[in-house]
């Protein structure tokens, strides 16, 4: 896979139903996404029975209940995960999931053999889980919603220690691993970051796409965007800003009940987003500033040359009154206008003829 990686975040928008999850895989594949991502968790391991919903969850679902009760209804069992992985393979789209607990991590790595893992923003401070994830040797995409740069650094230190393997975990060991040559090499091989605003949907004035630059400058790792904005403009703009990964929530129907549907795009929007990303990706180009192949064809037509404004006789001096600047651009460029003035014509010119005097070393001899 080259270029910008587009991840369709199915998440929990299957509402706990395998049939809907399989349809989300189809929608992601049909839209041209590179990867479809799910969330792997056990409610009993993820939240206490007294943990409250986030405000956006209660707002989007339409009623308040415990996180545990909400999550319990959204679980997919082990067999469902296997079916999803097989279906992704049949549709030639990558499978990715976010493990929220150690049991789920074991399922993804040992049970399904996944090669890459996603860390949700809520687990950026979950050092034991981060350490276990890096300890599997899998590459990691780390989402950074709600985090400061220092918290991102500490999370990267945990991952670095997990990849390097020693010494005993501690905050000092995390920092030492982050600053070590081996730790930095491991991070560059295995980790990408996602800027994220953890609200669903995220207000435009809190998205802060410039944070992509801050993360890239601070850590020197690939940086993308986990986008929770309304519509598709923001992720396309993020690509123009240098994002290498775009993750966007996908739903089959935004009016469905569930915590993330309202902050998701429907299949036609995802297809349009992918097309927009690919267009921007092509348009970014190699950098530098030189005429393109198509511009080289346009240049003679669009640029101008020095021409005779009126008939000019042999030996007659060129001056402002008998010269003009007109298309085409196949003669002397207008930048040489002042070099021509004062020279004498070595041939006769009719109106609009391109001035074809030899310029350069003989120029001084031609002038009065």
Structure, explained:
- It is a single chain.
- By secondary structure, the chain is of the alpha/beta class.
- The protein folds into two domains: 5-284, Alpha-Beta Barrel (TIM Barrel); 293-366, Antifreeze-like/N-acetylneuraminic acid synthase C-terminal domain (Type Iii Antifreeze Protein Isoform Hplc 12).
- Helix content is 41%, strand content 14%.
- It contains 16 helices and ten strands.
- It has helices spanning 18-31, 43-46, 55-61, 67-72, 78-90, 102-111, 127-135, 149-164, 171-179, 181-190, 211-219, 233-240, 267-284, 293-302, 337-340, 363-366, and strands spanning 5-11, 35-40, 94-99, 116-119, 139-143, 191-196, 223-227, 245-249, 305-308, 323-326.
- The strands form two sheets. It has an eight-stranded parallel β-sheet with strand order 3-2-1-8-7-6-5-4. A two-stranded antiparallel ribbon has the order 9-10.
- The longest helix is centred in the last third of the chain and has 18 residues, at 267-284.
- 37% of the residues are buried.
CATH topology of the largest domain: TIM Barrel
Strand content range: 5-15%
CATH class category name of the largest domain: Alpha Beta
What is the CATH superfamily classification of the largest domain? Aldolase class I
Order of helices and strands: EHEHHHHEHEHEHHHEHEHEHHEEHH
Q: Give the low-pLDDT segments.
A: none
Strand order of the largest sheet: 3-2-1-8-7-6-5-4
Largest sheet: 8 strands, parallel
How does the overall form come out from the CA principal axes? elongated
Kindly provide the radius of gyration, computed on alpha-carbon positions and rounded to a whole number of angstroms: 31 Å
- How many β-strands, per DSSP? 10
Number of helices: 16
Mean pLDDT reading: 94
- Portion in helices: 40-55%
CATH architecture call of the largest domain: Alpha-Beta Barrel
Global structural class: alpha/beta
């Amino acid at each position: 896979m080259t270029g910008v990686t587009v991840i369709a975040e199915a998440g929990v928008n299957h509402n706990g139903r395998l049939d809907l999850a399989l349809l989300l895989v189809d929608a992601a594949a049909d839209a041209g996404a590179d990867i479809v991502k799910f969330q792997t968790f056990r409610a009993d391991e993820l939240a206490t029975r007294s943990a409250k919903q986030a405000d956006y969850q209660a707002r989007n679902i339409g009623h308040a209940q415990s996180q545990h009760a909400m999550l319990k209804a959204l679980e997919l069992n082990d067999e469902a995960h296997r079916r999803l992985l097989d279906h992704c393979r049949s549709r030639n789209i990558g499978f990715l999931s976010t493990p929220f607990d150690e049991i789920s991590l074991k399922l993804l790595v040992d049970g399904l053999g996944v090669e890459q893992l996603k860390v949700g923003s809520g687990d950026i401070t979950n050092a034991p889980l981060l350490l276990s994830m890096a300890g599997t040797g899998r590459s990691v995409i780390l989402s950074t919603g709600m985090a400061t740069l220092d918290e991102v650094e500490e999370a990267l230190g945990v991952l670095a220690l997990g990849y390097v393997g020693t010494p005993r975990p501690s905050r000092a060991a995390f920092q030492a691993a982050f600053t070590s040559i081996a730790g930095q090499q491991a991070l560059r091989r295995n980790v990408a970051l996602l800027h994220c605003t953890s609200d669903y949907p995220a207000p435009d004035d809190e998205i802060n796409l410039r944070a992509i630059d801050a993360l890239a400058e601070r850590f020197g790792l690939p940086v993308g965007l986990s986008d929770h904005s309304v519509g598709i403009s923001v992720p396309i703009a993020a690509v123009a800003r240098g994002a290498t990964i775009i993750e966007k929530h996908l739903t089959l129907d935004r009016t469905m009940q569930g915590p993330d549907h309202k902050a998701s795009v429907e299949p036609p929007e995802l297809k349009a987003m992918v097309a927009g990303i690919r267009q921007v990706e092509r348009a970014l180009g190699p950098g530098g500033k030189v005429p393109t192949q198509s511009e080289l064809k346009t240049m003679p037509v669009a640029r101008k040359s020095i021409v005779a404004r009126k008939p000019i006789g042999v030996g007659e001096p060129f001056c402002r009154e008998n010269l003009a600047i007109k298309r085409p651009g196949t003669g002397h460029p207008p930048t040489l206008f002042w070099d021509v003035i004062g020279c004498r014509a070595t041939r006769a010119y009719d109106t609009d003829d391109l001035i074809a005097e030899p310029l350069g070393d003989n120029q001084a001899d031609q002038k009065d």
